[in-house]
Design a protein that fits this description.
This is WSCD1 protein. By secondary structure, this protein is of the alpha+beta class. It is about 40% helix and about 15% strand. Among the domains are: about 145-230; about 245-320 and about 325-335, no CATH class; about 355-530 and about 540-575, P-loop containing nucleotide triphosphate hydrolases (Rossmann fold, 3-Layer(aba) Sandwich). It contains 19 helices and 18 strands. Helix 1 packs across helix 4 (about 105-135). It starts with a helix and ends in a 13-residue tail after the last helix.
Length: about 575
């Protein structure tokens, strides 16, 4: 009996070991398979190529506000596409006449958005590295250390310009940025923030209170908590600064009382543009106004809005005494100094009761619209994504959780039913798909402010990109028209052409009120830091005729859908192309 029991015990031990071994092997095999599949998905996303074929599109549109003459002259047989209100109804229609891209849960578009998000995140590190390389050359620029000063955010002295860089801020980078804008002093705080101005802060602090190490330069001090490490920009660069970034704004009719309109003035024989600009820059005014021997400094205001420019010939001979005596016209120049009346921003003090989206297709000007909204309202905007490059440009809402409701609105490129219905209302920003596709392609290969190279445009990536993203442009608008609860439609082209009226619409939609001077300040800073730089190709046409036919049909579809919801149709410049 004992022998039999011993054998049974031995068998059970072997069985336990065998079960343990099989369980471990099963788990390891499953883990390896999961890792392999995950790597495959990421690799496909990083390559940016799409295996999706272009979805069905309409070949002809009857009763559409925008008409493509090629469609009327050369009708070709093709799959029928239901548009307008029919396209916005719940998917229960005959699937033979219902293209997949009109359905919000279209799996292909959802995969495309996921790949875009993966590429968006993976692109951040190379862009930040590139920014670090660009900063290296400024290391030789050294200023004079003036000391540690108290920094009051409500009464900040160095408020002429503000820059952030959470990872790569250095003393040289801050000094160079302030020097390029003709400021005398550069101040650093919190190890990552840079402030510029022409006056030293009034209150000094103990040297040991400036104890924050620069994020991009070990061993260097970049201020502290409510403390500024202040440097004087080197004088040898002063001559170059006087002539830098002075922009001619035009010839304007002078206000009736110049001294009441402009807070600072100078009378100088043989007055030059450089003299007046330097004087106004020192006074920290963005406008330099010249009339004969007189120089005035100030801001755009209701009495001097810079909206109605006159013929430049009326200002010819302005430096002549007899012409100046007439006092009818004046020359206006933009100095390197920023208009600081609308640069102060903060988070909402109480959570917003209305959850508002700022929605657009990628490349449609969402970042620029955020810049305008933030400076007009004085409140930060949030983002469904985190973009470190934008945070470094001053968009502090990037770091805040997108559902915190501490921001005035939230940027999103999402267009699924669930994602749309989370918001109570939305500003839907629409841009010409030709421009949007090119802008997003530029961002993909050269960041927010660069241009893709000729090699990028001629690669196989570009046709695949257009084939996939063009349908996303259309479905994005159609989904928001279908599921959005309360919408304000803003066309990017209208916003550029009539900035203040359109910006007023957006501000009122956000239930905010702003002063006219603040709106004029936004207009004066309309571009911010978001104009692309680098070699832009002239007379460059990257779209083939096949691409144009595809995009034009999507344009006609979206146009009819907008009109079907009693919105203004797309601007006529969209097609024909």
């Amino acid at each position: 009996m004992a022998k039999a029991f011993f054998r049974l015990q031995k068998f059970l031990r072997r069985t336990q070991f065998l079960l343990f071994f099989l369980t471990a092997a099963y788990l390891m095999a499953g883990s390896l398979l999961l890792l392999q599949r995950t790597r495959l998905v990421i690799q496909q996303g990083s390559r940016g190529t799409s295996t999706n074929q272009a979805p069905p599109v309409p070949d002809g549109m009857a009763g559409v506000g925008i008409v493509d003459p090629r469609t009327l002259q050369n009708p070709r047989p093709g799959p029928r596409l239901l548009v307008g209100m029919d396209a916005l109804q719940e998917p229960g229609m005959d699937q033979r006449h219902s293209p997949r891209w009109l359905v919000s849960r279209n799996s292909e578009l959802r995969q495309l958005r996921r790949r875009w998000f993966h590429r968006f995140i993976s692109d951040q590190e190379p862009m930040q590295t590139a920014g670090f390389k660009a900063m290296k050359h400024t290391a030789e620029h050294k200023g004079t250390y003036m000391g540690c000063f108290s920094d009051d955010s409500r009464e900040r002295t160095l408020k002429g310009a503000v820059f952030y860089d959470l990872r790569k801020m250095t003393v040289s980078h801050c000094q160079e940025a302030c020097a390029e804008r003709a400021y005398t002093y550069a101040g650093l705080a919190y190890g990552a923030e840079c402030y510029c101005g022409n006056k030293l802060p009034a209150t000094t602090s103990k040297p040991e209170e400036c104890n924050s190490e620069c994020k991009g330069e070990k061993g260097s001090v970049c201020g502290g908590v409510n403390r500024l490490s202040v440097y004087r920009v080197e004088e040898l660069r002063a001559g170059a600064r006087r002539r830098r970034n002075v922009i001619y704004r035009g010839c304007f009719r002078a206000p009736e009382n110049l001294t009441d309109t402009f807070p600072a003035s100078l009378i100088q024989p043989n007055l030059t543009v450089e003299m007046c600009s330097e004087f106004c820059s020192k006074k920290e005014f963005p406008l330099a106004v010249i009339q004969g021997r007189e120089c005035y400094c100030g801001y755009p205001t209701g009495r001097f809005s810079l909206h109605d420019a006159s013929n430049r010939l009326l200002c010819s001979g302005m430096h002549n005494a007899s012409s100046a005596a007439e006092g009818k016209y004046c020359l206006v120049y933009q100095t390197p100094v920023q208009d600081t009346r609308c640069t102060d921003r903060k988070f909402l003090t109480t959570k917003s009761k209305v959850f508002v989206a700022l929605s657009s297709f990628p490349g449609a000007g969402n970042t620029w619209a955020r810049h305008l909204i933030e400076h007009a309202t004085g409140y930060y905007t949030g983002s469904y994504y985190f973009d470190g490059a934008l945070y470094n440009k001053g968009f502090k809402g990037e770091k805040d959780h997108w559902r915190s409701r501490r921001t005035i609105c939230v940027k999103t490129h999402e267009s699924g039913k669930t994602e749309i219905e989370m918001f109570d209302s939305a500003i839907l920003l629409i841009r010409n798909p030709y421009k949007s596709l090119m802008a997003e392609f530029n961002r993909k290969y050269a960041g927010h402010l660069g241009y893709a190279t000729d090699r990028n445009w001629k690669s196989k990536e570009w046709p695949d990109f257009v084939n996939s993203y063009a349908s996303w442009w259309a479905s994005h608008v159609l989904d928001w028209l279908k599921y959005g609860k309360r919408l304000l439609i803003i066309h990017y082209e209208d916003l550029k052409q009539s900035l203040i009226p359109k910006l007023k619409e957006m501000v009122e939609f956000l239930n905010m009120t702003v002063t006219e001077d603040r709106l004029l300040c936004v207009e004066n800073n309309r571009d911010g830091n978001f104009k692309r730089s680098g070699a832009k190709q002239k007379d460059f046409e990257p779209f083939t005729q096949e691409m144009k036919d595809l995009i034009n049909r999507y344009i006609l579809t979206v146009d009819e859908a907008l009109r079907g919801r009693n919105f203004t149709g797309l601007p006529r410049e969209y097609v024909p192309r």
